[in-house]
Amino acid sequence: TNSNQDVTTARRQEIANSLVSAVSLVAAELLTFESMVDNHEKLNAIVYTQTGKYVQDYKVLTEGAFGDQYRVMVQASVSRNSLKNQLTRAGVIRAHKTMPRVLFFLSEQDLVEPYPRYWWGQGMPYSKPVAESSIAEVMREQNFKIIEHGPRIQRMATKSVTDAADIGPEEAINLGSALNADVVVVGTALAEAAPNVMGSSIRSFKGLINARAYRTKTGEQVAAVTRTAVAANVDEVAGGRDALRGSGSLAGEQLAIDIEEAWQKEKLEADKIEVALTGTRNLTNFVMFRRMLNTVEGVEGITVQELKADTALLKVAFKGNARELANSLMLRAFDTFGINIYEVGEDNLKIQLISHTPSAQN
């Protein structure tokens, strides 16, 4: 009958709408609000009209006719990686990983100076080591935050650490902590002549870097790297610098991998706090709340455990207790809604999202 056909059509449409909502929620985790607005046409073309590419499976949990409407509740598994890759290819992705702040203590000896130079030395003119600059460039590309040790920090260092090229990790960690570094990298870089020659003018030069990385919070060593690179040049100074630069790039790549692995592992080990939300029927409010939650200091990750018509259950990796998280949330302001934290447990919060415009909840 026409009635049965209408119900079938309505059911199919509501399932499709639910899948679009599921994929949209994952996209909202990967993008800023501004990016979603600016790239609306692209998102419509590559995401909202092609949800089948990203939904791995789904099941209808409950359904039924309510007056002249047909409602369904769908549980869907969305491939975050597939969606992220597609958004990256389309140029609209925004990486929002929190990466550590890094401070380098790298002494460097080139082919000109008879002794190594190091920025924390007493009375040494301030200089930026070639190898360190190369390492830092690679790590910046991976979104690490590099602390610049300019003259002000140099003055701090000369008052608090030993005047020696081979600075001890303990001193580096203490100064790094004072400067809010998450990781300190301690090591040496050396340029020397290599035996290969070509003709009467072109000579080879070798750059060697030894570096170790330490977590300032725990003092734990999280990386140890040794890398060598060779460069050829007619000029001794330029050749030595090229070799240092090359070994720095290699060392930076490995340091970035090892430090990030340790950093992400630590994030996963942060305490999990259960956050039960009500008032999530307005998906925009829910998305804005979750995006804000990601920016709270100490929050290292959020997992959606359950999402129903007007409730949601989140697991929040947080470096602190539930009371500290609640206090941080109370300081946040929202344009379209407010929050009512009506229960604070030992490791859980219960929060109601209250729309500023009651009609938005209908």
Topology:
Elements: H1 2-30, H2 33-38, H3 40-48, E1 55-66, E2 69-78, H4 80-89, E3 101-109, H5 130-141, E4 145-146, H6 151-160, H7 169-178, E5 183-198, E6 202-215, E7 221-233, H8 236-268, E8 271-278, H9 283-295, E9 299-307, E10 311-318, H10 322-330, E11 337-344, E12 348-355
Parallel strand pairs: 3-4, 3-5, 8-12
Antiparallel strand pairs: 1-2, 5-6, 6-7, 8-10, 9-10, 11-12
Helix pairs in contact: 5-8
Strand order within the widest beta sheet: 4-3-5-6-7
Gyration radius over CA:
27 Å
State the end-to-end CA separation. Answer: 32 Å
Categorize the overall geometry: elongated
Extract low-pLDDT stretches.
none
Total of helices = 10
Would you list the SSEs in sequence order as H and E? HHHEEHEHEHHEEEHEHEEHEE
Helix content: 25-40%
What amount of the residues lies in strands? 25-35%
Provide a descriptive summary of the structure in words.
The protein has helices at residues 2-30, 33-38, 40-48, 80-89, 130-141, 151-160, 169-178, 236-268, 283-295, 322-330; strands spanning 55-66, 69-78, 101-109, 145-146, 183-198, 202-215, 221-233, 271-278, 299-307, 311-318, 337-344, 348-355. The protein is of the alpha/beta class and 362 residues long. It starts with a helix and ends in a 7-residue tail after the last strand.
Summarize this, please?
With 362 residues, the chain is α/β, with parallel strands linked by helices.
